[in-house]
Amino acid sequence: MAASGRGGARVRRAGGGPPDARDRRAHCFPGRPGSPRVAGEPPVAAVVGGGIAGIAAATALAERGVRVTLFERDQVLGGRLAGWSTTLEDGSTVTMSRGFHAFFRQYYNLRALLRRTDPHQTRMTRLPDYPLWHADGLKDSFRHVPRTPPWSALGFAVASPTFRLRDLPRMNAAGALPLMDVRVPDVYDRLDATSAHDFLASIRFPEAAHHLAFEVFSRSFFADPRSLSAAEMVLMFHIYFLGSAEGLLFDVPNEPFPTALWNPLGAYLERLGVDVRCSTPVEHIAPHGDGFRVTAPGLDRRVDACVLALDTGGLQSLATNSPAIADASWHQRVARLRTAPPFLVSRLWLDRPVRSDRPGFLGTSGFGSLDNVSVLERWEREALRWSRRAGGSVIELHAYAVDENADRAAVQEHLVQQLHVVYPETRGARIIDARHEWRADCPLFPVGGYADRPAVRTSHPHLMVAGDLVRTGLPVALMERAATSGMLAANALLERWRVLGHTLWTVPVRGRNRLLRQFAERHRRHTDSGR
Predict the structure, then answer these.
(1) Residue 345 backbone phi and psi in degrees, to 5
(2) Contact assessment for residue 432 and residue 88, using Cβ atoms and an 8 Å cutoff
(3) From residue 467, how far is each of 162, 225, 284, 293, 438 by CA, in Å?
(4) Which of 125, 263, 408, 458 is deepest in the core (most CB within 10 A)?
(5) Confidence label for 215 from pLDDT (cuts 50, 70 and 90)
(6) Residues 389-408: pLDDT tens digits?
(7) Distances, alpha carbon 529 to alpha carbons 186, 191, 525, in Å
């Protein structure tokens, strides 16, 4: 894999494109050539972390014949998408998780990973719409918006009640040109020093559009737009809206995460010979010859290479306990990583159903801390089975970027109150049971923080880092960044062992419209000459 931190990747335009992709301009990054599998005595690799990135790295290595041990501190695989059983007050055993996740069609590498055990994506269900509601009554939808840019943006603006003719002359069209030609890392060079909030304010989008559409998107990073890098948000617009023809509708697993995703992939890894060790936190890693010695409870193992696929806190803790694995500069960058503010996922089991026309997923703005509402029985079969037995609904509420000093009980109660405002029929419903999950372990992409984030490669040639917190040099974000970085980490090791790397795909690596790219380039030159 030739991707680098400065975007110097070998890029090949798609021929047929990745499976199930609509966008003919999806870009292919071929793996480095080499032998199809490891020849002779296979190298041994430790992958630390059993979330998306770790599973991707372990899969990519094991499929080429590398002997892999996958370490996960929790009892199950899945990382931040894990699930666990819980018993409700009515005696039902159900699966709880950290909440709704959208699997967009742009997630080429994540979906390729999932196809290892589900070739036809039968464990996924496409939601028919992505509606957005504002408290003042404005509503938007992506159901009928064209998928191909720039018609997607024009179609959204024409159909959206947040854009009015009298607003257009006030907008700063020149300021919006960076959205038309997004490249990595150029977008960070130009916009990382600006907040998402300030960038949108400079464009002078209509206030309603700012709050309803763009703020909803930016809060997908679990951060307030004032704290989020504008470069990260602009890259997100490119991936999901302005640069890709896949559209903004998405799929969701039709069973809980363990059943639909991680149990099948865990079994697949074991068939490949991977030693999957859950409930086994790695405590210490030390250099040992050309490789490392990995220490975990009851285990001390020598390996040839390591992939650290951990969240921010886990990576910082292991780095602190393993001072010799990389140089001082790497340790300093890891120590400066930050996590996004706390977020809350509240799941309610109600004794009566919500209206039948309620969408499976709804993005919200202006309802206090409530960011979205999900009706799980609309797509998840376990929730549907409970709903049919109990005659009620399973509702999930999210609140992102909650103040660290907030009264958590009050925030939980506020979300329920806002649910009653959004879906008034729930006011008379009795809550049979509720689960409230508070977490603060998602990476923060702060203003000016890009250069400080670790890349996949480290100062040690056999130590790699994977996860949604790393710099990949590719136009990917969120879960797709996790999956892609895991594959990149594996490819970097396979390259050292002269083994064939895995092919990766991304959305187009720059703006797809030549005329708009030219306008954006002229604006850049004019801006640069004025500095």
Answers:
(1) -120, 115
(2) yes
(3) 36, 22, 19, 22, 21
(4) 458
(5) low
(6) 999 999 999 999 999 999 99
(7) 17, 17, 6
Instruction: Work out the pLDDT band at 155, boundaries 50, 70, 90.
Output: low
Q: What confidence category does residue 497 fall into, taking pLDDT thresholds of 50, 70 and 90?
A: very high
Judge contact between 335 and 327, C-beta under 8 A: no
**For 471, which DSSP code?**
B
Which pair of tokens denotes residue 364? 């919200």
User: Are the CB atoms for 377 and 384 separated by under 8 Å?
Assistant: yes
pLDDT band at 15 (very low <50, low <70, confident <90, very high): very low
Q: How do strand 275-277 and strand 250-253 relate by DSSP bridges?
A: unpaired
Dist CA 24 CA 18 (whole Å):
9
Token digits of residue 243: 């640069």
Q: Give me the DSSP letters along 243-267.
A: S-SS-S-EEEESS-HIIIIIHHHHH
How much of the chain exceeds pLDDT 90, in percent?
73
Question: Which amino acid type is present at position 506?
Answer: T
ω into 146 cis (within 30 of 0)? no
**Residues 6+ positions from 356 with CB-CB distance below 8 Å:** none
Query: Both tokens of residue 272?
Result: 């490949």
Q: Indicate if the pLDDT at residue 210 is higher than 70.
A: no
CA dist 470 to 147, 234, 277, 474, 483, Å?
29, 17, 24, 11, 11
Band of residue 526 on the pLDDT scale cut at 50, 70, 90: low
Token pair 């599973």: residue: 55
Residues whose CB falls within 8 Å of the CB of residue 1, separated by 6 or more in sequence, listed in order: 9, 29, 31, 32, 487, 488, 491, 492, 495, 501, 502, 504
Rg (C-alpha) for the chain, rounded Å, is: 23
Helices 312-321 and 328-336: crossing angle in degrees, nearest 10, is 140
Amino acid at 510: R
Give the tens place of pLDDT for each residue, 98-114.
Answer: 999 999 999 999 999 99
pTM of the model: 0.93
Rounded (to 5) percent helix, strand, coil in the chain:
35, 20, 45
Helix spans in 255-407 (H): 257, 263-271, 312-321, 328-336, 381-390
